Amino acid sequence: GAGVGAGGGRMMGAAAAAAGKAKAGSAIAAGGSDGKQKKPFDSMNNIVANMLLHMTSSSRFEGSLNVDVNEITMNLVPFPRMHYLVSSLTPLYALADVRIPPRKLDQMFTDAFSPEYQLMKADPKHDTYLACALMVRGNVEISDVRRNIDRVKSSLRFAHWNRDGWKTGLCSVPPAGQPHALLCLANNSCVRHTFSNLQSRFMKLYKSKAYKHHFVSEGMEEGRFAESLESLNEIISLYSEVHAAASEPSVAAPRLQIA
Question: I need a labelling partner for 106 at 20 to 30 A (CA). Which of 127, 204, 211, 213 fits?
Fold first, then answer.
């Protein structure tokens, strides 16, 4: 569970960012196609629901290469503490807006790695991938997936120890109103920027002891604040080290000399 979501709060916040930065005229920015007044967070909740429907589609429908949640965790979490995933969804729309124009397959693979389609404020192409999963819905062949991976991977930076760290899934049933769709789940060092921002906001409150009494009065030990901050700093450090190592020029290992 932890390896897939990184927490419901982060998922909801990421979807809020996606809904907030939607381009003018898009299905999300328009607030729905039926003209009805939308409730607060409707678009955000719909994006989260849509992402979860895609992630679990292989468990509910047939496909030539189904992937379950356990496989996602197994393939995308190389180290126990580095289990925070970045998700992108294309086409990006709320469930009530299924009549948006379909995207071409090759364009969807390009969109999946662009900042506009991430469900959090991030640009993974400028950071380092530890692993990446592409979960496609619709009438798509594995050859189409491999062709697009070969096309986009030259513009992506992977950790040197996992340059082929791709996981692919094919579900034959497309989402309603679309011929195909793509969910990308990636373990990427760009999450360290989000955590650094979280750390900065936490410290502003913690230094002034704002809201602390709510937690202490409920039985939480005061030392837990410092422990949580230390844990967050360690996670930021882990992802920073992976990114720094990938930025350094790789040195080829000496070949074995046979006399």
Answer: 127
